[in-house]
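Hello,

Following up on my earlier ticket. Below are the two sequence lines again, exactly as submitted.
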Amino acid sequence: MPSGRATSLTINRLNKYFGGNHVVKDLSLTVAPGEFLVLLGPSGCGKTTGLRMIAGLEAADSGEILLGDSDVTHVLPKYRDVAMVFQSYALYPHKTVAENIGFPLKVRGIDRATMERAVREAAAQVHMVDYLDRYPRQLSGGQRQRVALARAIIRRPAVFLMDEPLSNLDAKLRGYMRAELKHMQHALGVTTVYVTHDQVEAMTLAHRVAIMDHGVLQQIGTPREVYESPANLFVAGFMGAPPMNFVRGRIEQGRFVGPGVALPVAGEAGPRDAVLGFRPEDARVVAAGAGLFDATVFAAELTGDVTLVTLTLGEDTVAIKMPKEYEADFDSRVAVDFAPARGFLFDAASGARLPAHLVRAGAA
Amino acid sequence: MSIAPRPAVHRRWLEPARIGAMSPLGGIVAYGLLGLWAAFVLFPLYWVVVTSLKLPVDVNTGPYFLPWVDFVPNLHAWRGLLVDDAGPTFRAYLNSIIIAFSSTVLCVLIGSMAAYALARIEYRPRLVSILIFVLALVGACVAVGVAGIDWRVATAVALALFVLLARALGRRFPGAVHNGDILFWIISQRILPPVVTIIPIYMMFQSVRLLDTHLALILAYTVVNLPIVVWLMYDFFTKIPIDLEESAQLDGASRFLIFFDIVLPLARPGLAATTLLVLILAWNEYVLALFLSTSRAQTMPILVAAMNAGEKGILWWTMSVVIIIMILPVILMALILQRFIARGVLLGAVKG
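Thanks for your patience. The regenerated structure is below:
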């Protein structure tokens, strides 16, 4: 059931203040027609405020919002042709499932027969046809979620907005609904903006991820770009479970120097304070002296598919994913090894990624 | 040092047998007190019913408590009031019903809309604008009343002055009042008893020739009870999750549709409680009715009070009948509305 009228969404230098709090700072981004964009960030980063400005529930203090070619910055929510799924689902408790789903059509004065057909069609899409006469209080969390989705899709909006729609579900249901959401968005082809603080949701759902922190857009790109080429420390530390490991140190005379670490660097001579980052799954624990640098085993935890080894390195700790058969004694000395290309260097002061990279010891 | 657990000695009378129950002694005390209180409250009602069934001789030689035992019940008082002398009673009854129900409907409708606006829309009128408005209003009244200027001219001039001054001074004195201040101002209208304003109210209705009409009492009761409705409903409206209204907005609903289709149904417990309260206040109101009605619009409280001063002495048996038929509609409304008052309609709205 492709809507055939997917619309682009453009945001230009959007700003929002709450009193003296600058919660969204110069947000600019473009969502292509039919694209699934995820706004990702920790709570309080301005992602929900950004979404609410797109919906029209908050007024932007400056900047503009365009749906397709039309400027909707100062248009009332009801004229924007956007549908939103709230974190709380926001189902009308005194209306049945059918009345809830049909509400957007009822408001528009669409005749009863057409409405009933559309309600059944939308309900069928979320597998809720058997529950049309129930009230929201008689439904489980997952079913309420489906009703909220059906209410959003029934009128084929130009843009779908979703504010952490899965966060009230238990882990198993969340995984299932995630796949369903992705499938449905693909089938409908509706431009979607989805807000979440869960990086797994962002990675799995998004065509592109926009990561925000303190009201500022940090990086926007495909999940792979954001994961494999983070623009700064914040993005690197936010993506991945567990996130990227950081070792604090300095770049001096063509070398990265940290606690027990001295590695040759190309592209940057220093001196400057820097942070070395590497992903837990890119590194291996090897015998002491056989890797890039030595460290002490703090703990080894079997999580099921892998063993997560935590090592201490001066004041920093790093986590490394090892095969599930791996075992290590507490406090034993080991070494960390990874391909130099898998290491990232960041400026310690600004957090920005440095154009420098590690090189093999022999090549320096 | 380890602390020894308390020995599990079960004190049979002082401790409950299971969690969530009352101890036997506590139960006896609590139910004893409740029983006493119930008797205290219900006895007058019983007494009124019994008295309405007595002959004058039973009342005067009494007290008799139990029909068929102490005295022989007789319907003479009921017959006297509802058959022989039905006219005035019936008219007062009808007046009371029309006035109390109309003013309640009007009051709850207007009051809940005002309360909703205060709960959801931010108002910031400038203090100086309000001051200028009051001054302009006073000026216009003086001009019309004292100087004898045509009221249309006075109104136009006052309005023009208000607009000009408010614009000129508004920027220099930015102090503004907020929704909370407005709400307090509204409820403060109930701090003084309505009786202190009875003379101006009387004169106003006199000048528009509405004295002794239903409309006068309906309007007066509506105005007097509005602050209560606004105050109570404001609280109920702020408790409705705003997500529901935002969702309805995005679904394309107008403010009025949201109010009548989403908010009011969800505020039903509050609406029922407020309606009942306002209805009882209007139904029992005495002072305003005393001043604003003389004969045609007299209500039940006036009729009952008048019986206290008949030339035949107080006819207790007749008065009892009047009191019984007077409290019946309120009891009926309470029974109908209490079904809504205690029900959680918000269940299933916003939680997973």
